[in-house]
Amino acid sequence: MEQSPCVQPKDNISAAVTGDIEQCLNAFDRHLASERGCAAGTRVNYLREARSFLVFAFPDLRTNWEGLNADQVAGFVLRRAEDLSKLSQQGPVTAIRRLLRFLTFEGKIRAGLEGAVPPLRGSRHASIPRHLSPEQLDCVLALCPSDNALDKRNRAMLLLLAKLGLRAGEVFRLSLDNLDWTASAVLIQSSKTARERVLPMPEDVGSALAAYLTKGRPPSSERLVFLSHHRPYPPLRATAVLSGFVNSLLQQAGILAPCRGAHVLRHTLATGMVCQGATFKNVADILGHRCLTTTGIYAKLNLPALAQVALPWPGEAQ
Q1: Is the pLDDT of residue 9 over 70?
Q2: Closest by Cα among 89, 94, 93 to 192
Q3: Which of the residues 93, 140, 174, 282 could staple to 278 if both were Cys, CB 3.0 to 4.6 A apart?
Q4: What is 31-90 written as a DSSP string?
Q5: Residue 123: which of 152, 94, 144, 157 has the closest Cα?
Q6: Three-state SS for 186?
Q7: In the annotation, is 266 catalytic?
Q8: Dist. CA 93–CA 105, nearest whole Å
Q9: Among 155, 163, 267, 289, which one carries the catalytic annotation?
Q10: All CATH 1.10.150 domain ranges in the chain, comma separated
Q11: What is the location of CATH 1.10.443.10 in the chain?
């Protein structure tokens, strides 16, 4: 059975939290896992914010749910926002909303208190997704050879990022059992939502995987696809390695990307799909988003569609 992230909390605040608050956090964790299907990493982030909020709201560490009010909710989120970048501010907003909805469902607080969580300007929909142009992507792919065993591995991983929009963790979790060569499909086990999705395997991705598996992969009984090339050939674990590889290709290409790391290729795939007319449902299915609101960040990219719904300029034509 998977261990609850609450069992051995790592932040300093956790050491002082006992009794009602810790019981609440454990129940919240079970709810996130069983009802919401959240992966362990997501739950750890939500629980960290929830623990900080409950200690903020109940400094004596004794819960008083009837006394919990909107000022405490808004005050905590705004204080957390001051310590975070605009792109990170959505984290505590989402976590505290989830916690308050859970507490409402449990009958501990009145309904509607989650509405006190203030919307922050640094939300994920506040800017256009950061991506590469088609020409820049072609340049990056061209710089990744397949000459030796290590190159074959790196090229296969790069194409999974660029052509299937996988997260770095999903690439590393890919198993030999997830590859359906007969149907030309790949089963993806999400590192974030704990859900599975089946994606078609493009010809270039399949060719790169086959080249790595037959001519580049070290001999091993390990079922995970991508292995280190240093004995005893363990599976790759640190996703920062993959982001560093993408960054090195961007640097070689002389591309000053709007954002760096493996995730820029995921944004690039989704951006290309939207600009070519794909529906947000199609994009969400490929990326493995649980909710279409997550995919809504790409709405601003479909400029022709937005033009059809834009209000006319008042007065004379502009």
Answers
A1: no
A2: 94
A3: 282
A4: HHHHTS---HHHHHHHHHHHHHHHHHH-TTS---GGG--HHHHHHHHHHHHHTS-TTTTH
A5: 94
A6: strand
A7: yes
A8: 18
A9: 289
A10: 12-116
A11: 134-303
**DSSP-assigned states of every residue in 244-286:** HHHHHHHHHTT---SS-STHHHHHHHHHHHHHTT--HHHHHHH
The residue annotated as part of the active site, out of 86, 130, 197, 263, is 263
Distances (CA, A) of 116 to 72, 101, 131, 135, 188: 9, 12, 34, 45, 37
The topology (CATH level 3) of 12-116 is: DNA polymerase; domain 1 (1.10.150)
Catalytic residue among 192, 260, 290, 300: 192
The CATH number of the domain covering residues in 134-303: 1.10.443.10
Mean pLDDT of 270-296: 72
Cα separation, 43 vs 99, whole angstroms? 11
When computed from its CA atoms, the radius of gyration of the chain, rounded to whole angstroms, is: 23
Specify the DSSP element, H or E, that contains 287: helix 280-287
Quick check: is 223 catalytic?
Answer: no
Give yes or no: 281 in active site.
no
Does residue 56 or residue 288 have the better pLDDT? 56
Question: Which run of H or E residues covers position 153?
Answer: helix 149-164
Which of 167, 173, 217, 267 is labelled catalytic?
A: 167
The larger pLDDT score, comparing residue 53 to residue 292, is at: 53
Residue appearing with tokens 């605009």: 86
Please tell me the pTM assigned to this model: 0.61
Point out the catalytic residue in the list 51, 131, 266, 267: 266
Report the alpha-carbon distance of residue 183 to residue 45 in Å, rounded: 37
Helix (H) or strand (E) holding 27: helix 20-34
pLDDT, tens digit, 9 for 90 and up, residues 38-79: 777 788 999 999 999 999 999 988 899 999 999 999 999 999
